[in-house]
Amino acid sequence: MVAASFTRLVARSARPAGAAATAVFAGSVAGCNEDHIGSQELHWSHHGALAAFDACSVRRGFQVYKEVCATCHSVERLAFRNLVEYGAWSEAEVKAMAEEIEIVDGPNDEGEMFERPGKLSDPMPGPYANEEAARAANNGALPPDLSLIVKARHGGADYIFSLLSGYCDAPEGKVMLPGLYYNPYFAGGAIGMPAPLMDEQVEYPDGTPATVSQMAKDVAVFLAWVAEPEHDERKKGGFRWITALGIAALVAGYTKRFRWANLKARKITYQF
Fold first, then answer.
1. What's the rounded Cα separation, in Å, for the pair 167 and 244?
2. pTM of the model
3. Of 116-120, 196-200, 240-244, 266-270, which range is least confident?
4. Interior CA angle at 256 toward 253 and 258, to 5°?
5. Does 61 map to a domain?
């Protein structure tokens, strides 16, 4: 009797859980869209235990960001001094770049705000004065800041590359609403941002052909570096620590085997 009652109680308590699980599963299936495909998987030069960013690609990616992406997106976590610290730009080059921008600073001794040329400690300025101005210029949409976009999106740099190079005509039978563009790498397949890249849109000083795929790759590498500017130094530091700990382990093993073992096995006798 007790066993039967317990069985009925378990069954009653399990039914809601099963229904909830079914609802969640059904919701996840309904939320999936056949127009959304996974990001392309590329081999990036900075992936690997001891791999570093390609400095030339980072520099080209910054050029693409500055000439194309910066019209709508910001990288507010990146300062001019980060470019100097990385080493792909000279200090004089970055100073000249910063001084081209007027920064509102203050207040001064009279309590008023003033404008001054930018300096190395200043963050990269955004294209809009505030969020309201950004929304007004983009039909109510707020362009995301790109400082951590590689870490914030599943797929990282693969997703950025796929999204930027994945624009194409909508398949037959798919109706796109006004102001939306078809991109199978974006969730739902419809994105409000038009294709930002076109062949030969920028001119690389090093002579690299500025194809859509090349520009997408370079800006993805740049944004990956922006999200983690200490990447190369962190790997170098980790290698130094592993090397130091390995040497310390060898020294400790040698000391224990050939020095301490003899002392430990020594027999001491006392004569009276």
1. 49
2. 0.78
3. 266-270
4. 100
5. yes
